[in-house]
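Service request form, structural biology core

Requester: graduate student, group of Dr. S.
Request type: structure prediction, single chain
Budget code: on file
Notes: please return the result as structure tokens.

Sequence provided:
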Amino acid sequence: MSELQFERDGAILRLTLSNPERRNAITWPMYDGLASVEQVVAEDRGIRVVVLRGAGGKAFAAGTDIRQFASFTTGKEGVEYERRIAAVLTSFLRIRVPVVGVVQGPAVGAGLALAACCDLVVATPDAVFGAPVARTLGNTLPPLVIARLQQRLGAGRTMALLLTAGLMPSSEAAIAGFVTEVVEREDLDERVEQLLRVICANAPLTLASLKEFDRRILRDGAAAESEDVLAEVYGSRDFQAGVKAFLAHEDIEWEGR
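Core staff response, request fulfilled:
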């Protein structure tokens, strides 16, 4: 059975792509689960970070489950598919808290796109990234995904990766800045937990503002509108409490208000 598994663990929302018999290839029910995460996080202000990984430790996600393409006979069906996936990825990018992707094995096709929508990516040395559709399926990638890849990998690396239908090892993805850190498998869980604790200890409104600006810059560049977000952060109780605590050399418990 394929599913997106949800687990609330304190301030952490843990998501697991679970379709291990097909290397966690993403099915429609899994896409529906991913589309719901934004609302889940919006309604639960206690969530400070989301972590996403693949079940079984052998793959993050090997693209969309190809069996879902078998019935496609027209270009219109492809347009509708890409529109649906774009809506899922756009929603995932709007999640208000940081999203950490944990990648073991392949993150390809839709798996690559999903990893690109994570704010931080921790990968093992055996992780690989790519969208080799020019060699395998003969479909294509929409502008939303290419733009996000260009933002995270750079335009040159993105086009080289896509045009050669290659797979990028985690070491090269780290040099490009796509992967935050490469960690040996035996150390992976401990390092991810350390990272999650650091994020949970930071000011949630500050983190949310940085994510919102990242989205707006992708769309509008450096001239992106900012005053609404700046007003929310500087007008918050957290900012007032932060200044007071800093001047008094005291610790602070962020409220996210």
